[in-house]
Every structure is written in C-alpha cells, then in structure tokens.
C-alpha cells in the first residue's frame, strides 16, 4: 500500500513556484524522506525550501576568425551546468558529539533551473507530473549530497570519529595485555583467560554503546566503518535512486 503523501503546499518550497503550478496535486513522501535523512545522520524533519539560482548556460565554442575578422564557431556547444539543489546543515558543536549526533537539514530546490529544464523538454507546466519529477530529482540529489558530506567527506567529523575509535582500541589493547600478564603469572586456564579478555572488551564497548544510545533516544549515528560511514551512504544512495520521494497525487 502506498504511503500517504503530503501536499506540496504544506512545505515552504511551494511558495516559490509560479502561480500556475498545481502544487496541491503534487505529493511529498515526508515519512520516507525522514527515514533516508536519518540514514544520513540527519534529523527526520527535513525542511524543503527553494532558492532562485543560476540556470544552465549554453554557448558555441569559438574556434577562430574568418577573413573578415568575424569569430567562427564550431558545431560543438559548451555547457555551464547549473546546480539543481543546495543543502544546509549545522553539525553539533558539543565536543565529542559531531560524529554521532543527528543534525538538522534543509534542502533547497533551484526553481529557475527546474523551469528551464522543463521548458527544454516542452513539458506542460500546468500539469503536476513534470514538476513532481523535477522536484523528486532535486530533493533526492540534495539528500545524496548532504549525506556524502556528512558521512564521507566532513574532515572534522572524520577526525573525531577516528580519534574515538583509536581511544577505544588502545583501551581494549591495554586491558588485554594486562590480563595476559596476570594470567601467565597466575597459571590461569584457557577458558578463564579468554573469559577475562571478554570482560575487558565488554567493559569498553558496552558502556560506550549505552552512553551513545542514551544521547537522544536512539538518534545516534553509528556505522560498521568508523570514520567513513560507507554503509549508511550506500543505503541513502540506493533509496534515493530507487524510490520516488515526490509524485503526483492521484
């Protein structure tokens, strides 16, 4: 069963659309957008706004001058492609929280660029379907861009996460070395020794995990890959490519 769509008129982006756009007939799957945002380590309440940005520019490449001094152009066109979307997020400023806390996210669609792209394919601008398709593309792209920065390229977050992982590894290693020495001196059995090692590892991992889970009722950004959350980004990328976030309301 299809999830309930929320009319685009409930979001700030609708105010930036031309008056003839049937915004009430365009639906937003806010629940799915929220879930994908959480995979990207953002809060689920994503703000959908708009801005008036640059549009894609086309021009012919100048190859030389003819006998009369006029410029000659090649058949090849140069394209300066404009961005369809931009995003804004504010990571936590609390020490030790940037790598794990969920951040608020705003996704803004470039309305002039959307209009130009629709005009290039001679779309009926008074129908909801063409606008829904372009807004779906812009919001999906915004989620991917924001997630890529948050999960893979933000240097401050990477450094904090790696530092935390190294601290845990050193603590565990020190505990194992200490326990090994004690075991060797006391003649502990095989089972006693590895049981003690397990206790040492558990004393490091479990408290850290519980502390993180208590931070914000489960809103904690963890990954199988410390520092670079490849698994979470792969999930964001796949869902934004496979699922429709905006579609006409039938």
Summary of the model, kept short:
By secondary structure, this protein is of the alpha+beta class.
Describe this structure in words.
With 250 residues, the chain is an alpha+beta fold. The chain has six helices and eight strands. The protein has helices spanning 30-39, 111-120, 128-153, 155-186, 190-215, 230-242, and strands at 6-7, 26-28, 47-51, 57-65, 71-80, 85-89, 105-110, 246-248. Strands 1-2-8 form a three-stranded antiparallel sheet, covered by helices on one side. A three-stranded mixed sheet has the order 3-7-6. β4 and β5 form a beta hairpin. It is globular and about 45 Å long.
- Report the principal-axis shape: globular
Order of helices and strands: EEHEEEEEHHHHHE
Any idea what the radius of gyration is?
Answer: 26 Å
Per DSSP, the total helix count is 6
Q: Would you report the number of β strands? A: 8
What gap, in angstroms, lies between the N and C termini? 14 Å
Tell me the strand order in the biggest sheet: 1-2-8
Mean pLDDT: 77
Please report which band the strand proportion falls in: under 5%, 5-15%, 15-25%, 25-35%, 35-45% or over 45%.
Answer: 15-25%
The secondary structure category is alpha+beta
Q: What does the largest sheet look like? A: 3 strands, antiparallel
Uncertain runs are 203-217
- Give helix % range: 40-55%
List keywords for this structure.
single chain, 250 residues, alpha+beta, three-stranded antiparallel beta sheet, three-stranded mixed beta sheet, 8 strands, globular
Q: Helices, strands, pairings?
A:
Elements: E1 6-7, E2 26-28, H1 30-39, E3 47-51, E4 57-65, E5 71-80, E6 85-89, E7 105-110, H2 111-120, H3 128-153, H4 155-186, H5 190-215, H6 230-242, E8 246-248
Parallel strand pairs: 3-7
Antiparallel strand pairs: 1-2, 2-8, 4-5, 6-7
